[in-house]
Amino acid sequence: MNGNNSINMNIDNAAKVLKELGHPTRLALFRILVKGGYEGVAVGQLQEELQVPGSTLSHHISALVSAGIISQRREGRVLYCVPDYQLLQGLVHFLQDQCCSAQRPKIEIEP
């Protein structure tokens, strides 16, 4: 699922994204990335902020990359992680898409 697929978010894609974000470390990692913006956040900075071993961080990053939730970019020796904002917006839209659609309209009766 990359940014282009976020437009076609369906229940299976949404469940996969939510499953991967359902782990506390991955959710914390993703929140740091969202806060970091479109340039991404260096893996070293993520490790420093999360205070987790490198192998643990690598495992969580791999899970998010394989689900298409984040991508990685290398600049020299520095590896950056970047969230897929389009996917995030697609997920939010999917979750809110039918908001209140089953709600019955209020009928006011005058006395």
Automatic annotation (TrEMBL):
Species this chain originates from: Shewanella oneidensis (strain ATCC 700550 / JCM 31522 / CIP 106686 / LMG 19005 / NCIMB 14063 / MR-1)
The protein's name in its UniProt record: Transcriptional regulator ArsR family
InterPro entries: ArsR-like_HTH (IPR011991), HTH_ArsR_DNA-bd_dom (IPR001845), Metal_resp_trans_reg (IPR051011), WH-like_DNA-bd_sf (IPR036388), WH_DNA-bd_sf (IPR036390)
UniProt key word Transmembrane helix: no
Domain HTH arsR-type: 7-103
Keyword DNA-binding: yes
Record's keyword terms, sorted: DNA-binding, Transcription, Transcription regulation
UniProt lineage: Bacteria, Pseudomonadati, Pseudomonadota, Gammaproteobacteria, Alteromonadales
Any GO MF annotation of the entry: DNA binding
